[in-house]
Specification:
alpha/beta, globular, six-stranded mixed beta sheet, about 260 residues, 2 domains
Length: about 260
């Protein structure tokens, strides 16, 4: 049985079918699976459906054999599924450190009263969360921004803040919606290297939506290609680049001999 399965999922808004009988799977922990396609192909709609923001009109989504359909977003997150957003979702009036700390609430085992009363268990939990958050900031070269209000930082840096925050929830499956957009070439290269290391060392499976073909072709082990909500191809990056339908619908003729 696969680690994660999208099984014949359709998503319809009135007369518009955003996803059409879509199936894909991630077989193992630590696998990196890319999701590509033209604008409007249904990539973000799929992420929103997996995370419970949208409810599919047909099909099943299985994570470790548990069906996610009909579960609330917070319950899906608690199972070990995290995400980032195409347009970053941050608390602009909070520091970078506090933004990352918000992701740890899923794992804090003390209640609000314990925290309010300053009980030892609460203090230990909060100290551990802060230490782990600082480790994530160091990983993403964000320590120097830890006390800066997130709203004062450029988009490319906020992408890294959002990645750090997503990891604070300790996901087993992480859905990344254009994780390198707004980054310089150097930052994008460093992010690719870091994502590979996270997948390998922490055994986090990644489902990555990315428009930068150089990024996704070097990062993903397998790719699924969408067009108008349908899967038109799937395979290794090399196989996808040679697929005539993909070249016609998305990559363009310059990739035909790649």
């Amino acid at each position: 049985m696969s680690f994660f399965v999208v099984d014949h999922v359709s998503l319809q808004f009135g007369g518009l079918r955003a996803l059409d009988d879509l199936s894909l799977s991630i077989t193992n922990e630590g696998e990196i699976h890319g999701l590509i396609g033209p604008n409007g192909a249904g990539k973000t709609s799929l992420i929103n459906t997996i995370t419970g923001i949208y409810r599919c009109t047909h099909g099943h989504i299985l994570f470790r054999n548990k069906d996610l359909v009909d579960l609330a977003p917070h319950k899906i997150a608690a199972l070990g599924i995290g995400r980032t957003f195409q347009n970053v979702e941050i608390f602009a009036d909070q520091t970078v450190l506090n933004n990352v700390l918000t992701s740890f609430h899923l794992h804090l085992r003390h209640g609000g009263w314990s925290s309010a009363l300053g009980l030892p268990r609460a203090r230990r939990g909060e100290r551990q969360a802060r230490n782990e958050a600082m480790s994530l900031l160091e990983m993403f070269d964000l320590v120097k921004h830890s006390k800066v209000l997130a709203g004062d930082l450029p988009f490319g840096i906020l992408k890294r803040v959002e990645l750090a925050r997503a990891l604070g929830a300790r996901p087993q499956l992480l859905l990344l919606d254009e994780p390198t957009s707004g980054m310089s070439e150097l930052d994008a290269e460093e992010t690719i290297t870091l994502l590979r290391r996270l997948a390998e060392e922490r055994k986090i499976a990644l489902l990555v939506v990315e428009h930068n073909m150089r990024v996704i072709m070097s990062l993903a082990q397998r790719l699924t290609v969408l067009n108008y909500g349908e899967k038109i191809a799937e395979g290794t990056p090399e196989e996808v680049q040679r697929n005539p339908e993909v070249i016609s619908a998305y990559l363009g003729e310059e990739h035909a001999d790649a």
